[in-house]
Specification:
The chain has one domain: HAD superfamily/HAD-like (Rossmann fold, 3-Layer(aba) Sandwich), CATH 3.40.50.1000. The strands form 2 sheets. A 6-stranded parallel beta sheet has the order 5-4-1-6-7-8, with helices on both faces. Strands 2-3 form a two-stranded antiparallel ribbon. 41% of the residues lie in helices and 16% in strands. With 164 residues, the protein is of the alpha/beta class. The protein has 8 helices and 8 strands; from the N terminus they run E-H-E-E-H-E-H-E-H-E-H-E-H-E-H-H. The radius of gyration is 15 Å and the shape is globular.
């Protein structure tokens, strides 16, 4: 059973574009459908983590809005950080699902019990994950991942009960 989902940001929760405004501020866009699925996952008593290689106050804000309990930014070794979270949560890697799109996610994806890549992920990542999603990063890939897990683990009734 998957107890924890781990999310990469740029290229998974977003389309990977980073925009800089004239005043130097950074801009990112998140998919509201992904957000609803993440919040629902958490409301079901499961946990979510963000492990990202960059630092952004926008990501901090989004994690807080969604109730994500583990937020790690500026991470150079995502696999080491995943191991730390697994130990802290007292779960096994088999109970973890990860989504990633590029080479800095490689080791983390290889170790997870269930791994996903958006449709526009690196060729090398698509070749090692369990599931290549139909959606691109920032366009519902995280939602598709969560719905895949919900269906695979027979949690649809519990998931829908949150909203109907």
């Amino acid at each position: 059973m998957i107890k924890l989902i781990v999310l990469d940001v740029d290229g998974c929760m977003t389309n990977g574009a980073i925009s800089y405004l004239s005043n130097g501020d950074e801009m990112k866009s998140f998919n509201v459908k992904d957000g609803l699925a993440i919040a629902s996952w958490i409301r079901m008593g499961r946990k979510a983590a963000i492990i990202t290689g960059r630092v952004s106050s926008i990501v901090t804000r989004r994690a807080k809005e969604l109730g994500i309990c583990h937020l790690y930014q500026n991470v150079k070794d995502k696999k080491a950080k995943l191991d730390e979270i697994v130990k802290k949560e007292n779960i096994s890697l088999e109970e973890v699902a990860v989504i990633g799109d590029d080479l800095n996610d490689y080791k983390m994806l290889k170790e997870a019990g269930l791994s996903f890549a958006p449709a526009d992920a690196s060729f090398y990542i698509k070749n090692i994950v369990n599931v290549v999603l139909n959606k691109k990063g920032g366009e519902g890939a995280v939602r598709e991942m969560i719905e895949y897990i919900i269906k695979k683990e027979n949690l649809e009734e519990e998931f829908l009960r949150l909203w109907v």
